[in-house]
Amino acid sequence: MDLQVTIEELVKNEGIWNRRESSITDIVLKSSVKLSRNVEGFLFPHKLKRKDREAANNFILEKIAENRYCTQYTVYNLKKCPDIDRRILIERNILYDDIDNEAVVVLSHDESFYFILNAHDHIQFVANVPGFNFDWNYEFTKKVINEIGKVIRFEYSSHFGYLTAYANKSGSGMELSITMHPAGMIYSGRMNEFISELNKKRLGLRGSWMDWYYEIYNKDSIGKTEQEILEHMQSCFQDVINRERAVREALYSSDRRAVEDRVWRSYGLLLSCRLLSVYEALDLLAQLRFGLSLGIIDYLSLKDINLLLFYIQDCHLKKRYGTIKDNKDIEEVRATFIRDYLKEVL
Hints:
- By secondary structure, the protein is α+β, with helices and mostly antiparallel strands.
- It has helices at about 5-10, 50-65, 85-90, 135-150, 185, 190-200, 225-255, 255-270, 280-295, 300-310, 315-320, 325-345; strands spanning about 30-35, 75, 105-110, 115, 125-130, 155, 160, 175-180, 205, 215-220.
- The chain folds into two domains: about 5-250, Creatine Kinase, Chain A, domain 2, CATH 3.30.590; about 255-345.
- Helix 8 (about 255-270) packs across helix 9 and helix 9 (about 280-295) packs antiparallel against helix 10 (about 300-310).
């Protein structure tokens, strides 16, 4: 781990979208596997004193450095990061707003995996792939955690399994999630019905790092083996994807002109606007993604849309250009950035 990626470099990186295009899908942006573990001999993070937290961080970082599966990564100590750098990690969907400022992030250079140390648990390890696929990330998380488990004793109960900060996440300590764009459910006004169906299956839904995108995940991991969770969740996710696709196609069939008008209007606005808020930009890009999935538009790729979701956010633009002073400035810069980007790829 000799090469370090600065935040200035990170905002220009393609991240997981740099993988081959065939792995990227219209409905699911990415699939994630998260394993949570706590280290014997340390209190849970919310009870740790500062010196003990630092000792735990240093101890875990030493073991990560020895892990043969973890190479090419950068360590970001949040208490030393300016607020804008922390916000960029949130805009990259690595952190959530409620993450403790004392936490440490270990991020791979291709953003396919990362650790969050001493936030909710001592170790949260996440592996991501674009699109809907859990083959690589599940196997990879197991290899990494098993390797760490050889040199660190995890808190474990013969009755409850691995102990975590949240009781329902104990057991395997595993969370599977997909980040999806439920355009059909949103445009048809069926989101409440959709959420109710997820709850019946003990699936959770939470807002993602930006408007129009949601994360669906298993609420519980206790009382089930990893393999049971993996098989059950993949089946549930596939049902969700099939349902969303059917609703999209029904919408298009029932009012073809209105759907096409909405997509082409969005396309025209993005190519010609001079001021653009982040909320409107995300809405317009969501419309384009919807149009791509229905075959209405084919002038750009899903990868292009995914990259723009990173690049057009406030702190990404501020860090990239460094001269933005107020909201008018940033709206103008965002509009110009999108116009220039689309002209290049069209």
